[in-house]
Amino acid sequence: MTEKKRIAIFIDGGNFHHLAIKKLMTSELEFDFEQFVLFLAQEESIVDSWKRYYVGTVREKEGDEYSKQSMARQNKFFTNLKKESWVLRTSKLKTRIEKITVDERMQNYEKLKSIGLKEVIYERKREKGIDVMMATDLIVGAVEDVYDMAIVVSSDADLLPAIEWVRKSKNKQVMYVGFSMQNGNDTSKPLYSMIMNTDIQRVLVETDLRCFVKKMLL
């Protein structure tokens, strides 16, 4: 009888949200992550404490009801993950103000200029340090010989040095999970460099994921 591989799971929550959850027009609370990782691991053995979810945390802004509701939803989601023995790796979302000048790089820029619009100023939230945490855990898990295969659900090229190191220095396998999905003009595509620098590649489409969206009671 062939011995089962030891599997470690690494999910970049922010990346997964934009590449898959939004395309499904659902939310993390309505997605069955436990069944999803069992699907990815197939018949192999997931190591205790090595289902890991990395994400920036939402902060409540005084007087902002939307931020209050967002934080409440995220806290409920975190509670659900912890019940299923997930390890959460979090960082604070950093807010920055960004400005875009209306010029020929934009579609219909002449029309925008004709109504007097010269620039667009908006607030953008960015995760800080998530890729570093994922890379560190990949390496630590390999050094401590925790896993035989790491399943990486992220299309962040910043992880490639860590992936290369655990494969070549510690002889660990890495599976890359990417997405090919579309919702209107918003398209997710797998990252070519991740495909070329991992041992196993799985590119999932909407029909692969739709079955993990929970049927919510009305």
Structural write-up:
- This protein has 218 residues and is of the alpha/beta class.
- The chain has 8 helices and 9 strands.
- It has helices at residues 13-21, 33-41, 65-83, 109-114, 130-143, 160-170, 192-196, 206-209, and strands at 6-12, 45-57, 87-101, 119-127, 149-153, 173-179, 181-183, 186-188, 200-204.
- The strands form 2 sheets. It has a 7-stranded mixed β-sheet, with helices on both faces.
- α6 (160-170) links the parallel β5 and β6 (173-179).
- α5 (130-143) runs parallel beside α6.
Radius of gyration: 20 Å
* CATH A-level architecture: 3-Layer(aba) Sandwich
Instruction: Classify the oligomer.
Output: single chain
Briefly, what CATH class? Answer: Alpha Beta
The tally of beta strands, per DSSP, is 9
Using the coordinates shown, work out and report the CATH topology: Rossmann fold
Strand content: 25-35%
Strand order across the biggest sheet?
A: 4-3-2-1-5-6-9
Order of helices and strands: EHHEHEHEHEHEEEHEH
The CATH homologous superfamily is termed 5'-nuclease
> Helical stretch count?
8
| Proportion of helical residues | 25-40%
The secondary-structure class comes to: alpha/beta
Mean pLDDT over the full residue set: 87
Mind summarizing the main beta sheet?
7 strands, mixed
Task: Write the topology of this structure.
Layout: E1 6-12, H1 13-21, H2 33-41, E2 45-57, H3 65-83, E3 87-101, H4 109-114, E4 119-127, H5 130-143, E5 149-153, H6 160-170, E6 173-179, E7 181-183, E8 186-188, H7 192-196, E9 200-204, H8 206-209
Parallel strand pairs: 1-2, 1-5, 2-3, 5-6, 6-9
Antiparallel strand pairs: 3-4, 7-8
